[in-house]
Design goal:
alpha/beta; ABC-type amino acid transporter activity; 9 helices; 245 residues; Amino acid ABC transporter ATP-binding protein; nucleotide-binding
Amino acid sequence: MSMIEFHNVEKYYGDFHALHNINLTIEAGETVVLIGPSGSGKSTLIRSINGLEQIREGQLIVNGQDLADPKTDINRIRKNVGMVFQHFNLYANKSVLENIMLAPRIVLHRKEDENKKIAMEMLDRVGLADQATKMPAQLSGGQKQRIAIARSLAMRPKCLLFDEPTSALDPEMVDDVLNIMKTIARDSSMTSLVVTHEMGFAREVANRVIFMADGRIVEDDSKDKFFNGEPTNERARQFLSKILH
């Protein structure tokens, strides 16, 4: 079953053509990694999936709903599609536990006892159950990102989008976040789309690797073909050679 479908999608920022004729299908349960040079359209592509960026032309279907249809309720889409950003966007005036409980309380109207139970389960899943009463300012960057992941998981989404979630972290904090992402990727019920430069992560857990350049998808391969074979696109080959060596 398809979770996400792009059909001839075009996106502009003013006169700048950000996405060119994107055609892409992501099946439920897949882990897909997007790589490519800065400015290639990776973040724009995944931000369009939960309506943070609006497409100009084409059709974008998420969990059976067409985002180009003005009648589509974008908040209904976001109930099932979580997103983890480069920066953590935690509420500084709320505890870790309250940060995780807030969206399910407001959006899902989850009962308070159940909401707290699930929030603590998600904190335990990311290894931070002992930080529940702390405020965000008391946490490291890596801990904040793991809290942001727990917050997304607490909504029980069908799909998680990661927009370079380790790029703002100090190097020693990256592995803890990647390890959590690996456990999510191995969950066969979860669809994950990850923008990252972490090639080790891509090689270990991705089902597919998509290479973008200049707003276009120029390579879409299995991880084995992409890393162990040779991409057919010259730009992808050059990029891979620089990244790996």
